[in-house]
Design brief:
Blueprint (H helix, E strand, L loop, with lengths): L1 E12 L2 E12 L3 E5 L6 H8 L7 E6 L2 E2 L8 H6 L1 E4 L11 H11 L4 H14 L15 H13 L5 E5 L7 H16 L3 E5 L3 H6 L3 E6 L2 E5 L10
Parallel strand pairs: 3-8, 3-9, 6-7, 7-8
Antiparallel strand pairs: 1-2, 1-4, 4-5, 9-10
Helix pairs in contact: 3-4, 3-5, 4-5, 5-6
Bound molecules: adenosine-5'-diphosphate (2 copies).
Length: about 230
């Protein structure tokens, strides 16, 4: 039961090859850490999965959708199945915390009553329900990231992608964000987290896929039978 499959994927930006022949699988329910030095291709790998970038070559299947075969009309369908979290939060400054999180459900055409209930429920889980009417710029970094996690999970996506989610946070806030991600993993989401923070990797029981210069350097196959290449 694979939620992400990549076969011999390449991504070039002009003359720069960011991803070079990557094949990998992520099973439903996995926690996968994408690691490697800066410039190794971690961000690009995630961008390929949510189709912010298009592979130069190779096949990518996400939750049964072949990304090279889906057009712009099916892109919202793909994005609804994913939650994405960024290092710099990417919240809308001019909208309240509630509205930032509600936007996903509004776009999906949910009824206002359901939206109110789901948004408040996820903000409660994230420990920021009392900030619902506040605007993001008045929150700490850790609080803003909790809003971003709330936004990513409110539509109950099967897959959560996080690109250096703790890189701009202090250690305590980073720990809270990882705990929060663990909570949503326990509720059934698959996590793919790009990071070079060894400490947060050791906190969660996941497997590691290490990239170097766009190639998979080492890959732990699964928690049952770990294999070093
Ligand atoms: P990481 O997330 O591991 O730091 P990235 O995926 O951001 O790595 O970058 C991989 C390589 O691709 C780097 O050499 C980077 O400079 C290059 N790169 C990333 N995005 C772009 C882009 N939009 N245009 C050109 N080069 C890019
Ligand atoms: P990240 O490592 O998370 O991609 P960066 O600060 O490296 O963050 O990149 C910020 C933006 O610039 C991203 O959209 C990335 O794709 C793009 N980018 C990264 N490297 C390059 C590059 N060498 N040339 C052009 N754009 C780049």
């Amino acid at each position: 039961n694979m939620i992400v499959r990549m076969f011999d994927v390449y991504k070039a930006y002009g003359k720069t090859s960011a991803i070079k022949g990557v094949s990998l699988e992520v099973a439903s329910g996995d926690i996968v850490f994408i690691t490697g030095p800066s410039g190794a291709g971690k961000s690009t790998l995630l961008k390929l999965i949510y189709k912010a970038e298009v592979a130069t070559q190779g096949q990518i299947i996400v939750d049964g959708m072949n990304l090279s075969r889906i057009g712009s009309r099916q892109l919202p369908e793909l994005r609804r199945r994913l939650g994405v979290i960024f290092q710099d939060f990417k919240l809308i400054a001019g909208r309240s915390v509630f509205d930032n999180v509600a936007l996903v459900l509004e776009a999906a055409g949910e009824k206002p009553k359901i939206i109110e209930k789901k948004v408040m429920s996820v903000l409660r889980t994230a420990g920021i329900e009392e900030k619902a009417r506040v605007f993001p710029p008045s929150l700490s970094g850790g609080e803003q990231q909790r809003v971003a996690v709330s936004r990513a999970v409110v539509g109950s996506p099967r897959l959560i992608l996080a690109d250096e989610p703790t890189a701009s946070l202090d250690p305590d806030s980073a720990e809270q964000i990882m705990q929060l991600l663990e909570t949503f993993h326990a509720r059934g989401a698959t996590l793919v987290i790009a990071t070079h923070n060894r400490r947060i990797i050791s906190r969660l029981k996941g497997r590691e896929i290490r990239l170097e210069r766009g190639c998979v350097k080492t890959q732990e196959i699964s928690s049952d039978h770990e294999v070093e290449e």
